[in-house]
Each structure stands twice: as C-alpha cells, then as structure tokens.
Amino acid sequence: MAKVLHIEDDPANRLLVRKLLDAAGHEVLDAETGLQGVRLAEAEKPDLVLVDINVPDLDGYEVTLRLRGIPELEGTPIVAITAEGDKETSLAVGADGFVEKPIDARRFPDEVQRYLSGHSERISVPADDPLRSRTHKIAERLESKVVELSEANKRLEEVARLRREFLQNLSHEFATPMTPVVGYLRLLLDEELGPLTPLQRKCVDSINSSTRKLRSLIDTLLDVSHLETGRLHIYERDYDFGEVVERAISETAQTFQENGITVHREDIPAPMEARGDPDKLRRACMHVLDNAAKFTPRGSEVAIGVRRISSDIDQGERYQFIVVDSGPGISEKDRERILQPFFQADGSATRTHGGVGLGLAFARHVVEAMGGGISVMSPPNLEVAEQQLKGTAVMLSVHPGGPRPESTPASE
Ligand SMILES: Nc1ncnc2c1ncn2[C@@H]1O[C@H](COP(=O)(O)OP(=O)(O)OP(=O)(O)O)[C@@H](O)[C@H]1O
Ligand SMILES: [Mg+2]
Fold it and tell me: Whose CA is nearest to atom 17 of ligand 1?
C-alpha cells in the first residue's frame, strides 16, 4: 500500500482518483490548491504525488518545481495530469511522467503502480546545476509571495464583510428610533396634540424638513446595504412613468427654488404605462434632481425632459428621464466612478453641500434592475426643453415591461 497525494481542484476528478486508488489498496491524500499540495507533501512525505496542471494559486508546474527543491522529496515520483501539449514542460520542470486527461479508469491504477515501482522519464540534471538551484529558489519565493497574497486577500474579504455588516447594522440602528420621531411629528403637525402657535408651527416645520432629509439618507443607506448583500428587492406593479417623475420633480422643486436655479421643463408624454417599482424609481429620479440642484451654483439653469426612446440594444422601447444642468460638469476620469457607492468627485464641494456619495449608485442599481440603465454626459451635446446646457446630463432609462432577464444587474 502506498501513500498518494493528489492535487486537483475539481471535486469530481478527486473522487474518481480516490475511488480507483482506494480499490487498488492505496491511501489517498487530497489537496485542492497548489499551496495546500506543497504543505501536505512537506508534512506527509507521500510515496507519490499526482498533480493536475491547472490548479489554483501555484499551478502544477510551479508545484513540481517547488517540490523538486525540497531535499526530502528529491526521490518522490511526481506525475503530472496533463493535456497533450503540456507534457514536455512537465518533464522539464522535474516531473517523472504524466497521465493524460481525461483519466482512463482501466489503465490508471497500473500507470500509478508503474511510477511507484520506479519508472521515470525525468530529464536528468546534475544536482549542482546552478540553473536548477536558481529555479528552485524562484519557486520558493513564488510560494511565499502567493502565501502573502492569499493572506492579504483573506484580510480584504474579511474587511469587506465587516463593512457590509457595519452598514447593515448602522442603517437598522438609525431606522429604528426614526419610527416614533416620525409618528409624534405627524401628531404635532396635524395638531392632534393641541393647536400650535405660529412660532411652534415654524419650529415643527423645520424639524419636519430635517427629519425628511434624515429619513431619505437612512432609506438610501438601507437600500445600499441591501444592494451590497444582494437583498434590494425591486417590486413589480403597474405604474405611470410620467406620474412618478412628476412627483419626484415636485418633491425637489423647493430645493431648486431655494438655490436660485431656473428649471426648464418639457411636456411629459401621457400615458407612459410601465411595470416596476415606482417608489424606488421616484427616489432614483430625486437623487439625480438633487445632484443638479446641489452641484450647480446659484443662478444656474436646469432642463428636465421625459421621453420615449427606442433602445439601441434590442430596438425595444424605453422610457427616459433626462436632467441637464449648466453646472461645473464632471471630468471624464470621474464619470464611471461616480456610479460606484461612496465615490464623490470633489470632497470639498460635497462637504459644502452634504451627501455621502450613494445617490447615483442607488439610481443605477434601480434602473438596471428595471431593465434600463444610467448614463452621464459631460459636457452634453443635446437639447432638452429647448436649452443646450453645457454642464452635466444624467439620463435614467427603464424598460416599460419591467425587469428583463438579460439585463439583471450583476450583484456586487
Ligand atoms: N450634476 C452634477 N454635477 C457635477 N457633479 C456631479 C453631478 N451629479 C453628481 N456629481 C458628482 O458625482 C458624485 C456622486 O454623486 P452621488 O449622487 O452618488 O453622491 P452625493 O450627491 O455626493 O451624495 P448623496 O447622493 O448620497 O447625497 C458627487 O459627489 C459629485 O461629485
Ligand atoms: Mg447625490
């Protein structure tokens, strides 16, 4: 009975080899990656190593080179499991031979036995050959670099997991105490707790306006946390695209007014029947409008359009919402990145205006989930509401029929 180490990442192949070698009376040790294989070989000193060429981290050639640099394993036969073209390289790096893929179940146990009994096609190189010791050193360094990288990768994955959990906990912790605040505020506003003096009314209105902003931020945090954990649910129901946009515009009208921005509008075609999630779509539109109000200086202009367009992708119809502003624009370098969560082109400008960099990431995921997309042009070359503004244009589009299988966004 021999101890055979099998290095292979494919579970089906591992099982096959295990069954065949078990039946031939051998003990089989499995490793799923090159690194694991090297570690097991060092610890277990097997009688033979079978290594697949395409294994993760260190590949089969690198494993062979590395094992050949370990003096205790000098005499251990290494058999590469290879496709036709890889044979020469396997021998060149120090393998004793190879077994062709796919494995022939009838011949395999005999082939293994042949190598166990001393058969070898290894190319003989003198032990003191300088090139040989140099390549072994390189293989050893490669192994330690792969170890470092995979540990760093594990740490990064852990940090990403903690970040996702933190975001999830934070958004829930914020959302819980908001419920009574909103409830009692409603009672105060409706004067259910008694009439308000004009001064009290002014204070309560101001609290209400701040609470709305806080709620919108918490909603976005919750949404992004759900996006990151793949749990942002896009509901499907009938709605009118024009009506949703109209509500988003009227909810942001005050901000434009306060910022002294002139708004030009196109007529909204009607009806624009669609299926999807009108609430999330409205919030997506509001983020785009909010940006136009936030990043353009006082006295600027904004043009808003709502259109039916035919898609370049499948010639089908899409509904489009366009917001163009005469603000500072967005550099080409930042145009893709602003669609990622937490990215802000200019931290100092946003510090003046507030925001955490989630609006466009949220908008993108919502419209992609509804069979459409987002695009950003700066400076734009289009006319909206009879204006040719040269700041930034952001276009959201959705498919009227709702989510389409081929346009489901990739989960992050
Ligand atoms: N109309 C615009 N003009 C100039 N820059 C813009 C415009 N819209 C977005 N940006 C840039 O893109 C960045 C990302 O926008 P996004 O809406 O995702 O985040 P935010 O507005 O900074 O924060 P939040 O939306 O979470 O309140 C902004 O910080 C800004 O740098
Ligand atoms: Mg924003």
Answer: 359
Output the domain CATH number for residue 71: 3.40.50.2300
57: helix, coil or strand?
A: coil
User: Using CB atoms within 10 A of its CB, is residue 227 exposed (0-12), middle (13-18) or buried (19+)?
Assistant: buried
Ligand 1: residues with CB < 6 A are 220, 287, 291-292, 295, 325, 327-328, 330, 338, 344-346, 350, 355-361, 392
Name the residue at shortest CA distance from atom 12 of ligand 1.
Answer: 338
Ligand with the closest atom to the CA of 293: 1
Of 187, 203, 228, the position where a domain reaches its end is 228
Q: Is residue 202 part of a domain?
A: yes
Which ligand lies nearest to the CA atom of residue 347 in the structure? 1
Read off the tokens for 264.
């030009």
Biggest CA–CA distance in the chain, Å, is 100
Nearest residue by C-alpha to atom 31 in ligand 1: 345
Closest CA relative to residue 68, chosen from 27, 33, 31, 38: 38
76 and 168: one domain? no
Closest CA to 170 of 240, 217, 124, 138: 217
pLDDT tens digits, 70-129: 999 989 999 999 877 678 888 989 999 999 988 999 999 999 999 999 999 988 877 778
Q: Which atom of ligand 1 is found nearest the CA of 341?
A: 18
User: CA-to-CA distance for 351 and 364, rounded, in angstroms?
Assistant: 23
CATH code of the domain covering residue 168? 1.10.287
Count of domains observed in the chain: 3
Q: What are phi and psi for residue 48, nearest 5 degrees?
A: -155, 145
User: pLDDT (tens digit, 9 = 90+) per residue, 109-122?
Assistant: 999 999 999 999 98
CA distance readout (Å), 281 to 242, 247, 370: 11, 11, 9
Strand, coil or helix: 157: helix
